[in-house]
Design brief:
This protein has one domain. It is built from two helices and no strands. The longest helix is centred in the last third of the chain and has 37 residues. Keywords: Membrane, Transmembrane, Transmembrane helix.
Length: 58
């Protein structure tokens, strides 16, 4: 299961019917969690940078 191509995995696996639906869901959840993690890290770094600038201005 490729973490970065869950949609292709889903289409492929639904045609081959080799894997259960839970494995496909697990794959998609892993993909979503990876995206959410990267977005969260970016937001935290932006907030931290802005916070330091506010402290410096005080």
């Amino acid at each position: 299961c490729s973490v970065y191509l869950p949609v292709l995995d889903y289409v492929y696996l639904s045609h081959t019917n080799q894997f259960s639906r839970s494995e496909i869901i697990l794959c998609i959840m892993t993909y979503v969690l990876t995206i959410a993690y990267f977005i969260g890290v970016n937001i935290l770094s932006l907030l931290w940078r802005r916070h330091r600038e506010l402290l410096r201005s005080l």
